[in-house]
Amino acid sequence: MLSTEFERVSLPLADAFTISRGTQEVAENVVVRLTDDGGMTGVGAAAPVGHYGETPDTVEAVLPPLLDVVESVGDPHAIERIERELRDAVNGNPAARAAIDVALHDLAAKRLGVPLFRQWGLDPDTVPKTSFTIGLDTTERMREKTREAVANGYDVLKVKLGTDRDEAIVSAVREEAPDARIRVDANEAWTPRQAVRMTERLDAYGVEFVEQPVPASDPEGFEFVYERSALPIAADESCVTLPDVPAVADRTDIVNLKLMKTGGLAEARRMIHAARAHGLEVMLGCMIETNAAIAAACHLAPLVDYADLDGALLLDDDEYEGVPIDGSVIRLTEVDRAGTGARRT
Prior knowledge:
- By secondary structure, the chain is an alpha/beta fold.
- The protein has two domains: 2-113, Enolase-like, N-terminal domain (Enolase-like, domain 1, 2-Layer Sandwich), CATH 3.30.390; 118-344, Enolase-like C-terminal domain (TIM Barrel, Alpha-Beta Barrel), CATH 3.20.20.
- Helices cover 38% and strands 23% of the residues.
- The chain contains twelve helices and 15 strands.
- The chain is globular.
- The mean pLDDT is 97.
């Protein structure tokens, strides 16, 4: 038997976070808790994003029928069955389903008495470093943010672009972080020809790859950029569901998977394997999320090439602690408790 509950939490950010589509100062997450009849609790969280058709209100609206499914099945180890029945109960709503999926995985691993990565048999020594995101701001403020990030031990940086001064931004970041690995993310802001020109210019600054240079609604434009780009290309908004992996396989080098897009860990693992089958590299990303969600993604990180799991690091305060992250290093080997490691402070 399982009892279920959820609550909406408002998480102020340490600094206003801006991308090409807008600015965010507070993250609204919905935390889910599943408790078995022995009093053991699994925790997960939804970080809905309007760009994908979800809001905190829609998550709260669909969670009751979804949690009815969980209570009806009653077995946290029956993840595949529950996942199937959740899809039958409510169409779409991946962030809401991800919150339940993460809580189920947390509880199942706790009942077995092992960290989640050990339940899966993954190697914690292969976890890639996580990037730390430098959100859009004035060029000088982005320079300051970079200086602060470097001082805090972040040596992999993800720089948000999508302005008329993108090259100046990257130049400033590179000046402040001469030894850092730098990736950039345009969040669909460029035209195809503009994107090609930008890859040529950014190559001079040692940029590692460019994420989502053009709108997902323009697959031909994405292919145009891929065929002419001076840098590797990553698909984020263009790769949301499992069928998207083969659809983008001939027009990208990397797919960026996020639990809030995939609907949870189980589907994310399928997408990782699908990407491998198509010769793609994989980045594991996130929204701005509490550790109740981010911790689970950290356990999946041994399977991927790149990590962008800084969502909780951008918060001013978080009621949950998760997998230790020291600068850019995800210390999965230091997880000393069962489940995902997420715990209320």
